[in-house]
Amino acid sequence: MEVRLVDHMGSDLSVVNAARVSFAKESEWDIIPEAGPVKSLLQERDEKLIKYLAKHNHWSPFGHASMQFHIKAPVFVARQLVKHQVGLVWNEVSRRYVDDEVEFYEPEEWRLAAENKKQGSSDETTPYDVSATHMHAKSTYTAMLKAGIAPEMARMVLPQSMMTEWYWSGTLYAFARVCNLRCKPDAQVETQMVADQIDKLAVDLFPYSWEALRDV
Ligand SMILES: Cc1cc2nc3c(=O)[nH]c(=O)nc-3n(C[C@H](O)[C@H](O)[C@H](O)COP(=O)(O)OP(=O)(O)OC[C@H]3O[C@@H](n4cnc5c(N)ncnc54)[C@H](O)[C@@H]3O)c2cc1C
Q1: 186 in ligand 1 pocket by Cβ < 6 Å?
Q2: Does ligand 1 have an atom closer than 6 angstroms to the CB of 83?
């Protein structure tokens, strides 16, 4: 599972100035260390403004900063994350056009079922070898392609553990909503792993805004 930051736009100061334009005002960084604007310090009143905006759901200033990720994760994780739609754009590899080697997500330890179904799984684990299942799926898929079957149909035999990849771009506000929902213990652990990586990358880029938007 892999989350790579491809690009980003804006900074905490972009958020501040998008709000300050209402009064035809503009702020500057307080201190700009050599590391550049990403790690710069906001003036105290701008820090307070960001907190105020987040607290009172003035979301639009947070829409002027954005991030783009390239993510590799199993289909069942992508299936959950793609539900987050507003303020986000998603483009994924298509197995209609691609029939390359299939990769599978194969945990060594499997979480046991939880007594409370809403919890998803318990902390207890057991080893379970699924390599034969994956090998069988892969060999059936390859045999179907060899028989001339179109990749868009042959893919039907591939399991949800298959790895997929996508570009995911969106505003700071939208990704904060993703992390607020998916970095929590009630989210599926494998989905949390992706959200946690986004969380770590975002806090470095937008430390003031991210802290204000995250409900931790
Ligand atoms: C722990 C967990 C379990 C889940 N279980 C399931 C499940 O079993 N089945 C399932 O289908 N989904 C499930 N979901 C997905 C969930 O229902 C949401 O679709 C997902 O979390 C995306 O939420 P979002 O607020 O980021 O949505 P977005 O679609 O990105 O929307 C963002 C915000 O815009 C507003 N909005 C969006 N669309 C509308 C609209 N049509 N009308 C009014 N306001 C709108 C809402 O305020 C929303 O919060 C689960 C999510 C979590 C975190």
Answers
A1: yes
A2: yes
The reply to whether ligand 1 has any atom less than 6 angstroms from the CB of 187 is yes
Distance, CA of 39 to CA of 55 (rounded, Å): 23
Q: Does residue 214 carry a catalytic annotation?
A: no
Which residues have CB under 8 Å from 163's CB, separation 6+? 72, 73, 74, 75, 102, 103, 104, 105
Burial of 16 (0-12, 13-18, 19+ CB in 10 A): buried
Contact 199, 216 (CB under 8 A): no
Cβ-proximal residues to 41 (8 Å cutoff; 6+ apart), any chain: 29, 30, 31, 33
Of 95, 155, 177, 182, catalytic: 182
Q: Looking at the whole model, is its pTM more than 0.90? A: yes
In whole angstroms, give the CA distance from residue 182 to residue 201. Answer: 15
95, two tokens: 């197995």
**Cα 81 to Cα 119: distance, rounded to the nearest angstrom:** 18
Best residue among 86, 169, 177, 194 to mutate for probing ligand 1's pocket (most ligand atoms within 8 Å of CB) is 86
The two tokens of residue 177 are 């909503």
Could you report the per-residue pLDDT of 77-98, keeping only the tens digit for each? 999 999 999 999 999 999 999 9
Go through the chain and tell me how many residues it has.
216
